[in-house]
C-alpha cells in the first residue's frame, strides 16, 4: 500500500510539472497576460513632431522653411491628444512636448527675425520691387509690349531679392550674373521666362559667389527694349538689368 501511494504521488507531481512547463501548451500563463497588457507603442506623431522641430531650426535661414515648425506644432498637438485618449497604449509625451516647445520657439523667433529684416533691409532712397511686378499682367503693357510697371521703373533706384542662377563655369568672384526670383529656377534647373530674370552688373568693388542663399540687390533699374546679351547660353538675352551698388 505504501508503495502504491508513493507511485501515485510521483505521477501527480510529474503531471503538474509537465502542465506548468509544457512549451506546447495552448493555455497562456499569467506572466504572458501581464507582459501583453503592459506593452505600449511609441506614438508616431510624437516622433514626427520632434523631427520637424529640429528641422524647423532652418526657418532662421530662410522664410520658406517656416512651414517646418508649423508642422512640428501640428504633429505635437495630435500626439498629445492621442496619448491623452489612450494613456495605456501609447507613449511619447516627452517627445511631443519637446517638439511643441522647440517648434514654437523656431516659429516665433524666426518670424520676428524675418519681420525685423524686412522692415530694415531696404537702403534709404531705394524702392522695393519684386519679380512678380516685372511679369506681363492684366495691368497692361506699354507701346513696346513691356509691363507698364517695368517701364515706370526704368532709371529708378530699386531693391530686389532673389537667387543667383549658376553661371556656366565660374562660380566665385562674380561681377555680373543672372538673378531669378524662384529657388527652383536657381538651384534645380528650372526654365525661367525671359521676364523672370534680371541681369545684375555690380558697379562697386563687391563680388558674389554662387550659392543657395537669398541675395539682396540694390541699384539702378534699366529696361532694355532691344534686349541685352547675356553671358549665359541658357538665357541668351534679358530685358531687365540692374546696375548694382548695394549687394548683400
From TrEMBL:
Keywords: Membrane, Transmembrane, Transmembrane helix
Database matches in Gene3D superfamilies: Protein of unknown function (DUF3299) (2.40.50.870)
Keyword Transmembrane: yes
Transmembrane segments: 50-78, 98-119
Top-level lineage group: Bacteria
Protein known as: DUF4190 domain-containing protein
Top-level taxonomy: Bacteria, Pseudomonadati, Planctomycetota, Planctomycetia, Pirellulales
Amino acid at each position: 500500500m505504501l508503495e502504491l501511494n508513493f507511485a501515485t504521488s510521483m505521477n501527480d507531481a510529474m503531471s503538474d510539472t509537465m502542465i506548468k512547463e509544457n512549451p506546447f501548451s495552448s493555455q497562456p500563463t499569467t506572466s504572458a497576460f501581464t507582459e501583453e497588457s503592459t506593452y505600449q507603442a511609441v506614438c508616431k506623431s510624437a516622433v514626427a513632431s520632434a523631427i520637424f522641430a529640429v528641422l524647423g531650426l532652418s526657418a532662421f535661414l530662410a522664410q520658406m522653411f517656416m512651414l517646418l515648425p508649423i508642422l512640428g506644432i501640428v504633429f505635437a498637438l495630435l500626439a498629445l491628444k492621442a496619448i491623452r485618449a489612450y494613456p495605456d497604449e501609447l507613449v511619447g509625451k516627452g517627445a511631443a512636448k519637446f517638439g511643441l516647445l522647440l517648434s514654437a520657439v523656431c516659429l516665433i523667433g524666426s518670424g520676428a527675425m524675418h519681420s525685423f529684416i524686412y522692415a530694415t533691409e531696404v537702403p534709404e532712397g531705394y524702392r522695393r520691387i519684386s519679380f512678380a511686378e516685372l511679369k506681363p499682367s492684366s495691368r497692361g503693357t506699354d507701346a513696346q509690349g513691356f509691363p507698364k510697371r517695368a517701364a515706370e521703373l526704368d532709371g529708378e533706384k530699386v531693391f530686389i531679392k532673389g537667387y543667383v542662377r549658376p553661371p556656366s563655369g565660374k562660380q566665385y568672384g562674380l561681377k555680373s550674373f543672372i538673378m531669378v526670383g524662384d529657388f527652383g529656377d536657381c538651384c534645380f534647373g528650372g526654365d525661367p521666362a525671359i521676364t523672370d530674370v534680371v541681369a545684375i552688373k555690380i558697379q562697386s568693388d563687391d563680388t558674389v559667389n554662387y550659392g543657395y542663399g537669398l541675395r539682396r540687390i540694390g541699384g539702378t533699374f534699366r529696361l532694355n527694349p532691344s534686349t541685352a546679351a547675356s553671358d549665359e547660353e541658357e538665357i541668351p538675352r534679358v530685358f531687365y538689368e540692374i546696375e548694382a551698388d548695394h549687394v548683400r
